[in-house]
Amino acid sequence: MYIIVVGGGRVGYYLSKALLEEGHEVLVIEKSQAYCDIINEELGSICVRGDGCETSLLAEVGTARANMLIAVTGDDGDNLVSCQVAKHKFNVPRTIARIRNPRNEILFKKLGIDITISSTNVILEQITDVVPTHPVTHLHEIRDKGLEIVEVKIPQGAASVGKAIKDINFPAGTILTLIIRKAQKPVVPSPTTVIMAEDQIVAVIDPLMEGDVRKALRGMS
Amino acid sequence: MKIVIMGCGRVGATLAGLLDAEGHNITVLDLDSYSFRRLPAGFKGKALVGNGIDEDALRKAGIEQADAFFAITQGDNRNILASQIAKHTFNVKRVICRIYDPLRQELYESLGLESISPTVIFADILKKKLEG
Prior knowledge:
The complex is a heterodimer of chains A (221) and B (132). Chain A has 221 residues and is α/β, with parallel strands linked by helices.
């Protein structure tokens, strides 16, 4: 496969190395001469110095025959534009963008980027199970619908404790799907179910509203 | 009209001043508060420090109620990203984006993003000057 990697920093370097080892044809585009030199010395002459968003450079390196373009610079805007130029100008079948701001995930999807990888989200997913103090655990993301499934633990003294679900002010689109209680079977909540301290609540939410959901369930009275 | 301008350079500050003088409700966003010195005396709008490619900053700037959004920072890709957030996430009716690179500008115009490349326009003006 012919794969173009935009960004020759640490992520780009090790990614390219791994792709080469798997037998792919790899070309790296990197702005900094110093990073270019490192790659060309250590991985072979596969790095071109330049701007991976420039149509002329992408044309020069044969982007039209590329099977994939992976943009892994540290800048979300640069990665987005690289992928969009590759997709719309050169019909690259698969574009992958690294993103810094997890919020950009939905937008990038909407704009036709095939795969987005957010290191922030990957790390968050790993730690939220382990770090019990984290108030909202991200369980699963339904990307094309812009929804997220989360687990919220209700602390002692939260304003929601003792209230029926129908009396709590949730942002639109929030669906509480399950309540897990100590020493009890999990229950499917109804509007009249009363929230108790220590409840673990599994909910489907709009990720943009996570802060409001957290406030509604965990806000202190 | 409620208008959000991202980038308070010479163009951004001048545009903000012009629109403000016409009675529009203006919010200017810039990463550097020092750039707000360029806003004209008597500017009645809001000047906010914030990153226009961050949804929270845009929300603070009132993007949800905005009728128009201008992206005029120095970075083409930053402008492109912010414009697409304004257009596709916040459904702002009118989004106008500055893209210096003419080829990139052409591509995004064809993708439906209203954009202007000052490079082409200015080069053309200079050429016309010479030709008298």
